[in-house]
């Protein structure tokens, strides 16, 4: 469009109004026709757009008079186009629904709600109890050297736990799939000075035949406390409270002498049978007790490997199987159920049940 004067502005504006009467957006038959109207008047080269661009050629007084007039026309046109577009879209949706067999009034399918695996829930609950007792979380690698997995834990080369039938060995260099999370305790003591309290939850590996109560891959939570003047009485008090919080306030515990290379003295810790209350059943093999974990006072030889003075420091350690706890609390009879990813099994366990 050539530079405007007031005279040809009035002429162009009159033509615009006439064109708008013949191209009323409200009469557009479909969305394509409506879009053509928009482009004709409001597009980059639309007639109304060009008119507004050339306002700059008019004197200031006339721009102030004619500018709002043209902007009002633009605003009204945009509103008409938007209203007709909404109307046409609604009509199109209604037509599509009338031809469809889909009933939008039916309730929607609820998506399955994700939840934590029962073993993860059990580890979290155990860690929560121990964290309230001052223990912090520590982790380590799944593949360990023989030093961390055996030697630094006072397990000599001739110990049967190091045999091929018990341990998964990896080839050159000689590495093992960790058989317990006790190796994390050594790494933690190497990097920290006492006092310390840690728990080491994680996956471990044993070369065992898989059956209803055994797995080659399972989980442990091990604990370690090191401080001045720690005794076996501290260990008993800690584990008694831990097991009562885990299984209920009426849980009975007993400590039976045992042997572990990395603790001395050592104990097997049992709890009163949760199913028969001690009267004897098939679960406890008529004994009234269920073996739960191993524990003991840290062997001074272990402290020597991490440069702790055994004359100045003492400590206790314990280890508990997560699958055993979960099976007892949830009434699971086959450990393999935890690993088969059967949604019918896993969906039974809401977080409130753990």
Polypeptide structure, described:
With 354 residues, this protein is an alpha+beta fold. It folds into two domains: 6-99; 118-353, Bira Bifunctional Protein, Domain 2 (BirA Bifunctional Protein, domain 2, 2-Layer Sandwich), CATH 3.30.930.10. It has helices spanning 6-22, 31-42, 47-53, 60-99, 118-131, 146-149, 182-191, 232-247, 300-305, 322-330, 343-346; strands at 136-137, 143-145, 169-170, 175-177, 196-205, 217-227, 253-260, 263-272, 289-298, 314-321. Helix 2 (31-42) packs antiparallel against helix 4 (60-99) and helix 5 (118-131) crosses helix 10.
Strand runs, count: 10
CATH class of the largest domain: Alpha Beta
Instruction: Let me know the average pLDDT.
Output: 86
Low-confidence stretches: none
For the record, what is the CATH homologous superfamily label of the largest domain? Bira Bifunctional Protein, Domain 2
CATH architecture label of the largest domain: 2-Layer Sandwich
Strand content: 15-25%
- The total of helices stands at 11
Give the helix level as a range of percent: 25-40%
Brief account:
The protein has 354 residues and is of the alpha+beta class. 39% of the residues lie in helices and 19% in strands.
Offer a few descriptive terms.
354 residues, alpha+beta, BirA Bifunctional Protein, domain 2, 2 domains, seven-stranded mixed beta sheet, three-stranded antiparallel beta sheet, elongated
């Amino acid at each position: 469009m050539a530079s405007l004067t007031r005279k040809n502005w009035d002429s162009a504006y009159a033509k615009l109004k006439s064109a708008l009467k013949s191209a009323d957006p409200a009469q557009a038959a479909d969305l394509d026709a409506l879009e053509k109207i928009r482009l004709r008047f409001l597009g980059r080269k639309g007639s109304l757009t060009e008119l507004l661009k050339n306002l700059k050629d008019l004197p200031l007084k006339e721009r102030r008079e004619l500018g709002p007039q043209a902007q009002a026309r633009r605003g009204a046109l945009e509103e008409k186009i938007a209203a007709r577009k909404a109307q046409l879209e609604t009509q199109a949706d209604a037509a599509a629904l009338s031809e469809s067999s889909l009933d939008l009034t039916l309730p929607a399918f609820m998506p399955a709600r994700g939840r934590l695996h029962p073993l993860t829930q059990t580890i979290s609950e155990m860690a929560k109890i121990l964290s309230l007792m001052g223990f912090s979380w520590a982790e380590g690698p799944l593949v360990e050297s023989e030093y961390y997995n055996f030697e630094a834990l006072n397990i000599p080369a001739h110990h049967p736990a190091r045999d091929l039938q018990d341990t998964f060995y990896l080839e050159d260099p000689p590495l093992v799939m960790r058989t317990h999370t006790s190796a994390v305790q050594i790494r933690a003591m190497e990097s920290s000075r006492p006092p310390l309290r840690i728990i080491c939850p994680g996956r471990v590996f044993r070369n065992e035949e898989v059956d209803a109560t055994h797995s080659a891959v399972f989980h442990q939570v091990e604990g370690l406390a090191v401080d001045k003047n720690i005794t076996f009485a501290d260990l008993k008090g800690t584990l008694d409270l831990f097991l009562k919080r885990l299984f209920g306030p009426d849980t009975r515990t007993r400590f039976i002498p045992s042997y572990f290379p990395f603790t001395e003295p050592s104990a097997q810790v049992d709890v009163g049978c949760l199913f028969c209350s001690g009267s004897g059943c098939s679960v406890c093999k008529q004994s009234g007790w269920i073996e739960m974990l191993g524990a003991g006072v840290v062997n001074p030889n272990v402290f020597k490997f991490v440069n702790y003075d055994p004359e100045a420091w003492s400590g206790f350690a314990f280890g508990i199987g997560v699958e055993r706890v979960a099976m007892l609390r949830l009434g699971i009879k086959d450990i393999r159920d935890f690993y088969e990813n059967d949604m019918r099994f896993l969906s039974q366990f809401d977080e409130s049940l753990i």
